[in-house]
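Fold this: Peptide ABC transporter ATP-binding protein
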Amino acid sequence: MTSVPVKGAVTEPVTAPAALLSAAGLKVAFPGRRGGPAARAVDGVDLDIGRGEIVALVGESGCGKSSLARALLGLVAPAAGTVSFDGAPLSYGARALKAYRRRVQLVLQDPSGSLNPRHTVYDAVAEGLRVHGYAGDERAAVAEALARSGLRPPERFFLRYPHELSGGQRQRVVIAGALVLGPELIVADEPVASLDASVRGEILALLLRLRDELGLSALVVTHDLGLAWNIADRVAVMYLGRIVESGTVEEVLSAPRHPYTRALLSVLPEAGGEPVVLGGEPPDPARVPAGCRFHVRCPALASGEAERAGAATRCRTAELPVLPGRGRGAACHLAPGQAG
């Protein structure tokens, strides 16, 4: 059992196997407009994903989720920090990245946009095999990937084009294209956001089945905490480039410790109470506010709760540290167990 003490944030011990994919102190920045300060899209993130584990990365649009996912995939090089896979730091040479992307695959949000309308289903799924110089039976590999994705009999779909498929079937083709290379981990960016409600459950059930059958790990990027509840083992809540709360799905969604997490949960239909409306938009990532980066929108500060707890000044001035990559944590001056 290990415990990582973090001053200014509540954390608890955790027992866990070695991570398959790990980020440590990860930062991603983009040039500012007209020579202004750089946008800190990812501003210090530790995150571990274990073998056979599904982690949901949750937050509003613009919070840095997709930038973090791209950095984990090696699509952007971090400004600082490291990404490690299977215990080895990620190398950014062309050959090393090609080998890495065979083991870690991306599933995009919009299947219509990620499938070439001029390619048949067979060609769409076989593309990865051809890029990586697969030497085995291509037809058998494509058929197996389609079957695992729920398109059976697979041969019936070989010569179809994307426009001839339903939205759910197109998403299954995208998943098959990721599975055909036998990856150990997939990064799914809003995998059901473009689908009808009736189809979402089927795709989520498919991802869970693939985890159980193949031992597949997954990072699911989403704005929907309800989706996280249905699919994830652990949840990491992101705001303005940082993870502000993490833990098992039961811990985070049943007993949230951060006001931002509580606000996200309040809008779910099953929440029951009044939705918490956050004022304004998230701050510009090129101008991250001092203190807790959520304080300018925090309901606890606006309501006087932070003042009554003697934490208002710390909320406005004392920066919170990066949470550890695993375990129960909340980067909030008002979280249970905080010292004054």
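The radius of gyration is 21 Å. The chain has 13 helices and twelve strands.
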